[in-house]
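Handout, tutorial session.
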Amino acid sequence: MADVILKNVFKAFKGAKGERISAVNDFSLAVRDGEFVTVVGPSGCGKTTLLRLIAGLEEIDSGTVSIGAQIVNELPAKKRDIAMVFQNYALYPHMTVCENLEFPLKLRKNPKAQIREQVREVAQLLGIADLLERKPETLSGGQRQRVALGRAIVRRPKVFLFDEPLSNLDAKLRVQMRTEIARLHARLGSTLIYVTHDQVEALTMGQRVVVMKGGAIEQVAGPAELYERPATMFVAEFLGSPAMNFFEGRLTAKNGAWLFEALWQGFSLALNPTQEQIEVLGPFIDRPIVLGSRPEHLSISADCHDSVPAAVELVELLGAETFVHLRIGPFPCVLRMSGLSQLAAGHKVMLRFDVTKAHFFDLGTQQRIA
């Protein structure tokens, strides 16, 4: 196993008119030996390009990539001792499962007895021992993905790279494979970098999560910290389903009473900031600011005190929970409720905010304040 260190990595491609399009921009990240890191972001943010730079499938314009103690910028892909698992499985259709698993070991000219033993171990580990004589066309999507994983594992590389490997699977199978990959990492102790556009995969699988936007890092943190203390409005909105609700307004502090006054005249919230929040929010008094609230930190209230009027626009019943889409003046928002709800479109309600869980962002920079 080995750590992976990227320092100030740049990569740009030439556009249709000859312009340079930045794909990875001043990217620095240290992945520890044996760590499981997920990389998440919207389509086109540079996730796959990043993996290809680590793998040696693309040349770096500037910066360095190190695997272990070695800078590998000039090292060809086949000598980097990494294994990459792709979205489309990339199995050889004319070979059996056994032959697909054996192939990378034969390229290394490993002894036949060693090849047989390693293939047997991996097949048992992944539950595909009974599929060894079948060809990929006869396998289900989940079985093909296990074979693709097996072909990567059988080489025992220093680093595993996963490029959206579960995107082609149905929802139930994705959940199953997420669990299997996480268990596999715990058993192998491998260094693993996993790229996905799915926030659920990113948060449930990664020990640390890298959130990317426009080829650069927005935030790197553990799943809980990303959800509870997002560094930017982009991270706050991207991670979480439904997304965080945002309300533009300003802070006022008069006679020791703190208020958030939204742009809509009828919407104001009494705040009870901690001393730490007072120190960081103080410079933003009477300046444009954004209050963020997760859907689970809103609730329906029978009391008008510390509540704001809202109109129900849509109700999504999901069984164990319900998403209620509302509007507070000009602001749309979503409330997450446990269980089923009797609310319906057109209902008028009073909405209470858990202000102790509120997030505050600078409207101009969109960076977190408190």
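The second record follows below. Compare its token runs with those of the first.
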Amino acid sequence: MEDLKKEILDRFVSYVKVHTTSIDGREEIPSASREFDLAHILEKELKDAGLKDVKCDEHCYVSAVLPASEGFEGKKTVGFIAHMDTAPDFSGENVKPVIHENYDGSDLVLGDSGRTIRVKDFPDLTSLKGRTVITSDGTTLLGADDKAGVTAIMTAVTYLIKHPEIKHGEVHVCFTPDEEVGRGPDAFDVKKFNADYAYTVDGGDEAEVAYENFNAASARLLVDGVNVHPGEAKDIMVNAGLIAAEFTQTLPADQVPEKTEGREGFFGLMGLSGDVSHAELDYIIRDHDKDKFEEKKALFAKKADELKKAHPHAKIEALIEDSYENMISIINKHFEIVKLAEDAILSEGLKPYSTPIRGGTDGARLSFMGLPCPNLGTGGYAYHGPFEHVSLEGMEHVTHELIYIASNPLE
């Protein structure tokens, strides 16, 4: 297969320069109208490339169809999905990508930002020696999450159109908004997408195929106290802030994000606010094991009840809401799609592997919506901050993997 590096690099650099950061807490989809800026660019590129049924809908979902080659019409239809928005955790505006050709394996200084991607902190860098590595200038994130995935999909489908000698099944493409604020699938029409199986292209290492993620819930503790003048507070004041602080000490100290790895779950305190009158704690609860996940939710509620009994003059309420489930229960019923991805990775001379995702993925929700959807890598690392980086060769590997998957449709 011909070298696609220049095409991939040009495409990727152009995409990351478009500001598409989504905004948390908004009801509308997309959460930020600027996401349409990239959506319309992709819509035009898909049309110009010759894909069919190209559309950017009112919710900023860009979809298209690559019809099957002659003789492949009866095969199953595959979908490729990537998100256009970037994370609101760090600035995604005025991204200035920096290209480090023939990377020497040492620490990467990010311009004049005062930031450095250190090998001791990001050991994946050792595997990228000799490659072309792309970073931001350190003042923004890069946007490889998930514009590397968008790039790989666009390059793969345009390559198949330019090379009709490569026979392939029908391919459905969708570029989505608002994944980074947890709403990517909210307006995704699985029935209209009309694929038998799909892959989100939104992971890390190009040799990874992921099909296991956290079970997830959000949990909130609300405390209303009694506020009086401190000088007259004896036996009257009920300090909501102190009660909330007390609650944080009742959960297992070793089950927090900073002390867990692999399949270990946690209680993550993500926000706290309050004063004497009112206090709030915002947690996320995570575990790969469904039973342990349910136990964690039950423990949160139990500790809140115990706090109520200890502080009868305060109003204490625990709110727990499930967010998403571990998709492995769905993927295990369709494991041939994982095997196909592993064959694609092997075809690139790489050794496929899988690790449990310590987070969520649109593919998890889509799987429970009726579209089995494991997650493929993009060649990128250290997402959601200024240390984000991706290798050009990694993106090229992923592009080739997608071409393999499309040209080897399941029966």
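Points raised in discussion: The chain has a mean pLDDT of 96.
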